[in-house]
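Renewal narrative, Specific Aim 1. Our central claim is that a sequence can be written position by position from structural information alone. The example that follows is taken directly from our test logs and has not been curated for this report. It begins with the structure tokens describing the chain, in the order in which they were read.
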């Protein structure tokens, strides 16, 4: 296991969390919540999902830090990159199906990087 790569995965996860909350929140979540074009239930469910993503990415950052500090957590070292890879695949799928430009969906790049760092960390 590579401690430095686990720390890098933790750092990218926490930076992703911060960007998601403080940049994405005002640009995406707030306008979504303020939209009158969607039914109330859909707006609040989307807002809930936004915050679930925030919590998951923060938890991944904490988990990778635990892996870096206590290398014996091999189950966590395997689970976190797997979780990130699943979210990455979902992000790619939403981008393709939605016809969105990949450069406009940070999840495509950030979860890819977290997956790469975490999986490489666990493999070494």
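The sequence written for that structure reads:
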């Amino acid at each position: 296991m590579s401690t430095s790569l686990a720390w890098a995965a933790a750092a990218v996860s926490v930076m992703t969390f911060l960007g998601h909350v403080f940049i994405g929140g005002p640009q995406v979540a707030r306008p979504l919540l303020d939209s009158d074009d969607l039914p109330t239930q859909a707006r609040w469910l989307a807002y809930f999902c936004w915050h679930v993503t925030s919590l998951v990415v923060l938890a991944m950052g904490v988990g990778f830090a635990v892996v870096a500090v206590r290398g014996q957590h091999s189950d966590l070292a395997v689970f976190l990159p797997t979780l990130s890879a699943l979210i990455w695949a979902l992000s790619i799928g939403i981008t393709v199906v939605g016809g969105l430009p990949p450069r406009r969906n940070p999840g495509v790049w950030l979860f890819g990087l977290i997956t790469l760092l975490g999986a490489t960390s666990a493999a070494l």
